[in-house]
UniProtKB/TrEMBL annotation:
NCBIfam families: AcCoA-C-Actrans, PRK06504.1. It comes from Sphingobium tyrosinilyticum. Belongs to the thiolase-like superfamily. Thiolase family. This is Acetyl-CoA C-acetyltransferase. Keywords: Acyltransferase, Transferase. Residues 263-384 form the Thiolase C-terminal domain. PROSITE patterns: THIOLASE_2. Signal peptide: none annotated. Pfam families: Thiolase_C (PF02803), Thiolase_N (PF00108). It comes from the Bacteria. Residues 4-255 form the Thiolase N-terminal domain. The keyword Lipoprotein does not apply.
Length: 386
């Protein structure tokens, strides 16, 4: 059985303490749920489940935040929901769980979504509130001879392993901003962005419709002046994903639902997988997950028209390009998280919305999306645009 996507939306990203910081994460999630219902025309009561990714499930994002998002939306209270955490791949995993439900025949309409207000609920907030308590027990430290796992450390290891220079990373970061600028100016994001009403400091209201993190005047000279995150390292804030507020969602349905509600699919989920590897270098796993996913799908890298590889740190997509041999012009064609932001729990369905609309705009057929994740895991989803 096939799983089809009939709508894919996202909010424009909000910078840390920026334009979206005044909106509660439950409100942001409810906005994208409502947009899916409006776009698809599917009756709310027909939705079998909502699977929502969220990484920092604490404070305003606690107590099974997906349920609160449903209750704040126009969906009836009879729609169930669940919150999941696979770190940066949380909402991409939500898609894969939803697809499994559809393909098994146990459900017909499932929303996969994600939300993260990194201004209001910073990464690590739950650990800090617990006075530094962590799942990193001594047995794990002994197994890996390490005090703790570090994504910054892993990114630096990738840069060194694959031979990238500071100049390589800066050039990649600049290109992300240039592509995001071009995509925004051309209206490439308009079909996927849900306008969010915000209140400005003077009390007036505005619609948030543009990704706030784009540096419209980015330059190599400016990037070269940014200090490394780690002393003696290569990675800077300019070559790292931005702390971002946002939400995103896709509606996934069965062939039965397509016929019953007269829906027009925009994509088909062709294949998906999730893998795990070294938790120390950790962010390198998308390289090997891509190999496994293509083999599982019976495809080659040449069968894919466009790629979305999350720009957690510049060395990750650069290493992925070097490993796969993909033409850089086919990857992150509208920019990535360095320019557009990385609202961690929402990034999976955010990238998927962008990938689907980019494929359709270019007349492409297949797209592949992959995401590095804390702990050394990676999701890969292959889509067919319709």
């Amino acid at each position: 059985m096939n799983a089809y996507i009939v709508a894919a939306v996202r909010t424009a990203g909000g910078r840390r303490n920026g334009r979206l910081s005044g909106r509660h994460p439950v409100e942001l999630a409810a906005e994208v749920l409502n947009a899916l219902v409006d776009q698809s025309g599917v009756p709310g009561e027909a939705i079998d489940d909502v699977i929502l990714g969220c990484v920092t499930q604490y404070g305003e994002q606690s107590r099974q935040v997906a349920r609160f998002a449903v209750l704040a939306s126009k969906l009836p209270e009879s729609v169930p929901s669940v919150t999941i955490d696979r770190q940066c791949g949380s909402s991409q995993q939500a898609v894969q769980f939803a697809a499994q439900a559809i393909m098994s025949g146990t459900q017909d309409i499932v929303i996969a979504a994600g939300v993260e207000s990194m201004s209001r609920v910073p990464l690590g907030a739950a650990t800090n509130a617990a006075e530094g308590k962590t799942p990193m027990i001594q047995a794990i430290r002994d197994r890996y001879s390490i005090k703790d796992f570090s994504q910054f450390g892993g990114a630096e290891m990738i840069a060194k392993k694959w031979g990238f220079t500071r100049e390589d990373l800066d050039a990649f970061g600049l290109e992300s901003h240039r592509r995001a600028t071009a995509a925004t100016n051309s209206g490439a994001f308009e079909a996927e962005i849900v306008p969010i009403t915000i209140t400005l400091p003077d009390g007036s209201t505005d619609l948030h419709v543009k990704d706030e993190g784009i540096r419209w005047d980015a330059s190599l000279e400016g990037m070269a002046g940014v200090k490394p995150v780690v002393e003696g390292g290569l990675i800077t804030a300019a070559t790292s994903s931005q702390i971002t507020d946002g939400a995103s969602a896709v509606m996934i349905v069965s062939e039965k639902a397509l016929k019953q509600y007269g829906l027009t699919p925009i994509a088909r989920i062709a294949s998906f997988t999730v893998t795990a590897g070294d938790p120390i270098i950790m962010l390198e796993e998308p390289l090997y997950a891509t190999d496994k996913a293509l083999k599982r799908a019976g495809m080659t890298i040449g069968d894919i028209d466009l790629f979305e590889v999350n720009e957690a740190f510049a060395p990750v997509p650069l290493a992925w390009l070097k490993h796969t041999g993909v033409d850089p012009m086919k990857m992150n064609v509208n920019g990535g998280a360095i320019a557009l932001g990385h609202p961690v729990g929402a990034s999976g369905t955010k990238l998927m919305a962008t990938l689907i609309h980019a494929l359709r705009a270019r007349g492409g057929k297949y797209g592949l999306q992959t995401m590095c994740e804390g702990g050394g895991q990676a999701n890969v989803t292959i889509l067919e645009a319709l």
